[in-house]
């Protein structure tokens, strides 16, 4: 069964600095998708970035980038130039395909990120 | 374009009572999902609808739980004879089967349930 592990329950970073959130996963599949979601307090979860396993190039979205190490089954998120609005719970997720092309996400336990002004 | 909306946002109920949550997905999204999230944990998949058909159910969805999507638009999640262990946030999400959108799943803000 696919599992996702986030070993850092909490992280903090100084505003404008860079922080890296860790995620490891377990799967026997060769082609899959990985995601990072952000969940601000009392607000909905939003997609930050996605990585397709068959792509060797690491995904980037503005200040957010990933370090995808397929052999090591590692998928870390780097946030550059941290801003106060980045404070949230961050969840790493693995996509499992369901019938008729739909999907379900298996989430890690989350990392609470605090930004210090 | 409105997002996924859920109602009520918060519900406090006594043990043994029934509760119902409603989810309105993003317009034209044909796929709808329910997840449950307890404090300090990531969301866990409960069930999935494609249009009005419920095509996947997690074993977490006990007999006391029932979900419907009668016309392929909004969905309801009912919990009968609530127990304290049901206290959690119930998240609804939707997606569109599309090569362009990449099947991105969009989440609502969730419905918090507290069973006392």
Description:
The complex is a heterodimer of chains A (117) and B (116). With 117 residues, chain A is an all-beta fold. Helices cover 0% and strands 54% of the residues of chain A. In chain A, the strands form 3 sheets. In chain A, strands 2, 5, 6, 10, 11 and 12 form a 6-stranded mixed beta sheet that branches. Chain A has a 4-stranded antiparallel beta sheet with strand order 3-9-8-7, with no helix packed on it. In chain A, a hairpin with a 4-residue loop joins β8 and β9. Chains A and B meet through β6 and β11 of A and β4, β5 and β10 of B.
Biggest beta sheet summary of chain B: 7 strands, mixed
Tell how many strands the DSSP assignment of chain B holds.
Answer: 11
Order of helices and strands of chain B: EEEEEEEEEEE
Query: Based on DSSP secondary structure assignment, what is the total number of beta strands of chain A?
Result: 12
Strand content of chain B: over 45%
Profile the largest sheet of chain A. 6 strands, mixed
Distance between the termini of chain B: 37 Å
Structural class of chain B: mainly beta
The protein's oligomeric status is heterodimer
Mean pLDDT of chain A: 93
User: Can you give the helix content of chain B as a percent range?
Assistant: under 10%
Average pLDDT confidence of chain B is 92
Q: Which residue ranges of chain A are poorly predicted, with pLDDT under 50 across at least 5 consecutive positions?
A: none
* Series of H and E elements of chain A: EEEEEEEEEEEE
Q: What would you report as the Rg of chain A, rounded to the nearest angstrom?
A: 14 Å
Number of helices of chain A: 0
Residue fraction in strands of chain A: over 45%
Which structural class best describes the helix and strand composition of chain A? mainly beta
